[in-house]
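Hey, resending since the last one bounced:
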Amino acid sequence: IVDSEETQSAKKKNEPAIDRAALEKAQAYLRPLFPKSNLKHEAMKELFRLAVWRVAGELARGETLPEVLPQGGGDEPGQMNSQVRIQPSGSASELVNGKVELTSLPDIYTRIVEVLKSPNCSAAQLAKMVSTDASLSSSLLKMVNSAFYSFSKRIDSISRAITMIGNKELVTMALGVSVVNTFGDIPKGLISMEGFWRHSIACGVFARLLASHSQDLSGEQLFVGGLLHDVGRLIMIKEVPTYEEALAFARKKRVPIHVAEKEVLGFDHTRVGGLLCQKWKFSKSMEEMVWFHHAPSRGKYAKECCIVHMANIMAEVFLASQSDCGSVTISPIEDKAWEALGLPTSVLAPTFAKADKQINEIVKLFLNK
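The structure tokens again:
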């Protein structure tokens, strides 16, 4: 675990020295969070190492870590005790296709998409449309001026932003901002919405950074795919009365939330999210990134799905010591998902370093903090 590169990095930041005792304590703290993960897998082994260094740094700074829930036991799936009962909850299709009144995306996003479809669409016309929504305009300008893009000069107009990042990329970012703003009425109590969006934003940032290694992929599209990967959970939290039991099962048996959802409710958030993307007429690749982020090899757009799959795991690892971010355990890497990306493990440490500032800035932007 001891690594001179991280030690030198800490010294440059004037952070407290990380000694072996802190590293061993961090290692012991994190191991229960990886019950289903193969720590001999080259990528997971490196992610675990990076997590140990992050948590050890937090300990060195005197930060208090949340308690890790003990491993549950005793009950087999389908034989839970009275505190966690399987309840019939209909189907994902019923949930999305008429059983509930789903929130619509803001009209401004729909109008932007229609303008973009026009063969005579110009950057000036698109900028004029975006500028009619002050909140969206402000969010997009903050985004293009953040560490997310790191442009050398400040961009002070939507038309300039379109010139710098392109029509389709701007619309993709508008989609992300619109969806975040759409889910402002989720009931408090079951999960921390700030923690939910922090994890989602981290997943989007990691997806964009991983996509940067492939010339044929859109970083903005991968960011939004990562941002929205768990959107189905919001629908389930809002509309499924027994969703709390799935959360209880995940904690008790220490399994990923999508596994608990299937066991307790009969379907999971990936299916709900995929159907929601269909309902909102998102692109097929966006739909698959959401639907197959836990089973990336099932998607036609397999590489995009593999990137969001890895980005989700990286976000869980990155936020492993933040208990409000929704992960009871670190999801395992699907066989061949990492191999499909064709990346060396040496990209993971610098990707974590690049993501740190970007995640914090975008959280502040999206959550108005």
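Residues 162 and 170 are 6 Å apart (CA to CA).

Sorry for the duplicate.
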